[in-house]
Amino acid sequence: MRISTLDPMTLNDVTDLDNAPYIIDGEGPNALKIYFENEANKSGYLAIPLHTANATLSAAYAKVADSDITGTINWDHHFR
Fold this sequence. Notes:
Layout: E1 2-4, E2 22-25, E3 32-35, H1 39-46, H2 53-64, H3 72-78
Parallel strand pairs: 1-3
Antiparallel strand pairs: 2-3
């Protein structure tokens, strides 16, 4: 399990790990234990809406696919 003692809400290092709230995201050796300075920060973090990464990225690429400033995204399309 990986451990993060950096509170993602404040970016402060959590030092009292015995009393700090935490969550465990994932399972097995790749699970991430995230410590928070307080319950309010933990609750705020858990309230952040989750997005499906692939759907979000696909939507972003689709939105800019025809733009001239997208660089390598359009390279394959224009030079085949």
